[in-house]
Amino acid sequence: MNRRDFLVLGAGAGAAGLTGANPLRAALGAIAEDKTPRAGSAVRAASKFKHSVTRWPYGKFTIDQLSQMARELGIHSVELLEPDEWAIPKRYGLTCAMGYATVPDPRTRLTQGFNRVDNHAWLIPAYQRAIPLAAAAGVPNVICFSGNRGGISDDEGRETCARGVAPLIPLAEQHGVTLCMELLNSKIDHHDYQCDHTAWGVALAKQVASERFKLLYDIYHMQIMEGDVIRTVRDNHRYIGHYHTGGVPGRHEIDSSQELNYPAVMRAISESGFTGYVAQEFVPTRDPRTSLAEAIRICSV
Questions:
Q1: What is the pTM for the complete model shown?
Q2: How close are the terminal C-alpha atoms of the chain, in Å?
Q3: What digits encode the pLDDT tens for the residues 242-263?
Q4: Which of 115, 159, 240, 246 has CA atoms 20 to 30 A from the CA of 17?
């Protein structure tokens, strides 16, 4: 399952709660019972950047349960939440590092984006509402998407995205909230998505020319599309405002079972001076708490 599938199915089923015998409930029970020292304090001290976890791969947990687990593991944020969910991580001393803007149909959030003028009529008001709400809730970033090409050239799509984002930049600068356009792969998971190469996204960021417009660099997606992750991070870090992880292939654990050298990637991110959030966005194949704890340990450089 990828994030688009999660949006289509709806997050409500996951948030409704857990019933019956469930290994996820058992994992939460283990958190409460385990008295061994946690790595959380060490993680917070060691990392220049902060740790986050995305909500959708853990849809069988409620947001409260995921937030509890994140706190126990020394994670600073639970993200990719709707505005009416942003307050939940706060109950656990966490934030939502990357929020959604409320849109008419979340199922088309990734495919219907800023690269079409017709979409601006509802996207611009949606983000005009979301940015002040994010500032008030302490949400530092709001995610946005190019949308699918649908026959639009890369040059036209970039110009149209810049045109759509432009009215939002003064508001984002006023409130100190950063719009982050996500880089996604169009080869495997999101066919025809336009913001599918770092160079395209960087060209857009240069055109927008604001510190309140950045890229969400998804390491999984960009390994699939172009590879050369460490060089790309070093060359373009000033245009990157947020990172997502995931093992390649499959978007599972970021351990030695996949092809990326995540400790080396994390060192490159840290050496770039990045102090924002790196979010775990892999789908666990094992006990979720164990896999998430291991990922935080791998990324703590």
A1: 0.87
A2: 29
A3: 999 999 999 999 999 999 999 9
A4: 246
